[in-house]
Automatic annotation (TrEMBL):
Transmembrane segments: none annotated. Residues 79-133 form the VWA N-terminal domain. GO terms for cellular component: voltage-gated calcium channel complex. The gene is Cacna2d4_1. It is found in: Membrane. The keyword Lipid biosynthesis does not apply. It is a single-pass type I membrane protein. This is CA2D4 protein.
Length: 133
């Protein structure tokens, strides 16, 4: 029975290792291990912070949805500025922002893996052949 259990355990380990990707994860971990920091966090505090951020985001979305119908009911014209995302922060030879471009303040944002983003403007994505001049 012992030899059967050893053989079965070895076979099981082999299958689990092959299909779980654990060796790949171990290799990837070793590659980035020097840059990782492990710190203890209070789980309750983490959940509270997350719920506050989620509540704030959802409140802003609800407010935005509530404001839109009022503007439409009042018959306000739909005025908007169009910027080509490829031209933001682009300047011409006279140091002026190019047409369809403007200054956008870009800051790292943790919600976008610390990529540089602008959180001041909302956008609707249009194909460039629809609105570009």
């Amino acid at each position: 029975v012992k030899s059967w259990a050893d053989a079965f355990g070895g076979e099981l380990y082999s299958i689990v290792t092959k299909y779980s990707g654990s060796l790949l994860l171990q290799k990837k971990y070793k590659d980035v291990e020097p840059t990782l920091k492990i710190k203890e966090v209070d789980g309750l505090e983490l959940v509270k912070k997350f719920s506050e951020q989620m509540e704030s985001m959802l409140r802003r979305k609800v407010e935005a949805v509530e404001v839109q119908p009022r503007g439409l009911q009042e018959g306000s014209p739909l005025l908007f500025d169009y910027y080509n995302s490829l031209l933001i922060n682009e300047k011409d030879e006279n140091d002026n922002y190019v047409e369809l471009g403007d200054e956008f303040i870009l800051e790292p944002n943790e919600h976008f893996n610390n990529l540089l983003v602008n959180t001041t403007y909302s956008d609707i994505q249009l194909p460039t052949n629809v609105y570009n001049k």
